[in-house]
Specification:
By secondary structure, this protein is of the alpha/beta class. Helices cover 49% and strands 15% of the residues.
């Protein structure tokens, strides 16, 4: 299906791996040129090569999205490189703090807020002038499932992700008149490099195998498999496509039906951290 996206440009934060890279590749397959940012030059360059192999132009920039100046530099550099501002913004940043409320410091809170919520706000603020000028834009915010539940060891995750969901709703109403949509994707248990490392740590701590941890996690997913980055990418692509041209201010959970099970797992402190928990 032709989504009519050929020739458009997407800016993707956290685009060198995991969900961000999958979204960048999905967009590239539909003719979208992509600028990505991340912290590691090696993985950025590898992602650019994969995007270019899809036939799209691609650019990579090192950036720490917890810093305003890095976001401003990324957007300015990507705009110059692509010859125009972003048509599509995929906000995809991740950090995760696992600790009881009493053990989380002000610094923990502020860092998590800056990496995710403030980064999303700042990126949107930087690209919106270009979208308004074109009277077309698509913003997709990737926010964790903890936005929907109480999670004893993920207090900052839950509050920050709830903020992302509400920011999505708030901004969508303010820009809808310029044909700009803003939507949110909530990933479930997503099989990424970060998740695999967490499985390895949990298996080591529990004295079991990674396969046993994986089986335990999959058992909590009604559809019987882990979520993959490409599942999230397809949902992000949907929000950017003509199929969703009247859809805005919405949040979709891509979790294989595991929403209720996530709550139980958290209560017993067994939920594995994922890229977007």
């Amino acid at each position: 299906m032709d989504f009519g996206l050929k020739g458009k440009t997407a800016f993707v934060t956290g685009g060198s791996r995991g969900i961000g890279k999958a979204a960048a590749l999905a967009l590239a397959e539909h003719g979208v040129d992509v600028a990505i940012c991340g912290r590691t030059r090696e993985t950025l360059d590898e992602a650019v090569a994969e995007i270019e192999a899809k036939g799209a132009r691609a650019w990579a920039f090192e950036a720490d999205v917890s810093r305003l100046e890095d976001i401003q530099r990324f957007v300015a550099s990507a705009t110059d490189a692509s010859g125009g501002g972003a048509d599509i913004l995929i906000n995809n940043a991740v950090t995760s703090i696992s600790a009881p409320f009493d053990e989380q410091t002000d610094e923990d809170w502020q860092y998590h807020i800056n990496v995710k919520l403030m980064a999303y706000i700042r990126c949107a603020r930087e690209v919106l002038p270009y979208m308004r000028e074109k009277r077309w834009g698509r913003i997709v915010n990737i926010g964790g499932m903890t936005a929907r539940i109480a999670a004893p060891l993920r207090v900052t995750n839950g509050i920050v992700n709830a903020g992302v969901a509400n920011f999505t709703k708030q901004l969508s109403g303010q820009v809808a008149g310029q044909n700009i949509t803003v939507n949110c994707v909530h990933p479930g248990f997503t099989l990424t490099e970060r998740m695999l490392k967490n499985f390895e740590r949990r298996a080591r701590d529990a004295g079991v195998t990674v396969e046993e941890i994986t089986t335990q996690t999959v058992a909590a997913i009604p559809m019987g498999r882990m979520i993959e980055s490409r599942d999230l990418a397809k949902t992000a692509l949907y929000f950017c496509s003509p199929l969703a041209d009247i859809v805005t201010g919405q949040a979709i959970a891509v979790d294989g039906g595991s929403g209720e099970a996530i709550t139980v797992s958290y209560t017993h402190q067994t939920l594995p951290a994922s890229d977007q928990v």
